[in-house]
Amino acid sequence: MRYVIPFCIIAAPALAETCPPVTDHSVRMSEIHAELEVSRGESEARVLSNQLWELWLDAPDPIAQEMLQEGMSRRGVYDFLGARESFTRLVDYCPNYAEGYNQRAFASFLARDFEAALVDLNKALEIMPTHIAALSGKGLTLIGLGRDDEAQKALRSAVEMNPWLQERSLLTEPLPQDI
Question: Which of 23, 36, 69, 153 is the most buried (most CB within 10 A)?
Answer without folding.
Answer: 36
